[in-house]
């Protein structure tokens, strides 16, 4: 369980770090609509990740275990709300779609970095 906890903490923190990094870089180097897409995409996916974490933690922590139907219903509500927000942002032309897609990749990058860190940890641990 120690590895899972370490990965979860790393992913949770790196989500916010990457969001801050792409926000600064986007505002400095990209047009405003592209930067806004990066920021809003990163915010949407990071908030969804945290809400999913809270839902699963509440559902799987005794003594208040939730039904899997409740977890799935909350997931689909979040999915529908996120889809509506993304549709609205793109259809109204507030954000650049490419910037939005790149912003939505924040959690994926965090998970990739966490995987690479754990691989490095395992490789150097075996080398000793």
H/E element order = HHHHH
What's the N-to-C terminus distance? 22 Å
Q: Characterize the biggest β-sheet.
A: none
Number of domains: 1
Record field, number of beta strands: 0
Mean pLDDT: 91
Which of globular, elongated, flat, extended, rod-shaped describes the shape? flat
Give the structural class: mainly alpha
Oligomer: single chain
Q: Percent helix among the residues?
A: over 70%
- Pick out the low-confidence regions: none
Total helical segments: 5
State which percent range the strand residues make up: under 5%
Radius of gyration: 17 Å
Write structural notes for this entry.
There is one protein chain. The protein has 128 residues and is an all-alpha fold. It has one domain (2-127). The chain is built from 5 helices and no strands. The protein has helices at 2-29, 32-60, 68-91, 97-103, 106-127. Helix 1 crosses helix 5 and helix 2 packs antiparallel against helix 3. It is flat and about 45 Å long. The mean pLDDT is 91.
Brief description of this entry?
With 128 residues, the chain is mostly helical.
List its salient traits.
single chain; 128 residues; mainly alpha; 0% strand; flat
List the helices and strands and how they pair.
Layout lengths: L1 H28 L2 H29 L7 H24 L5 H7 L2 H22 L1
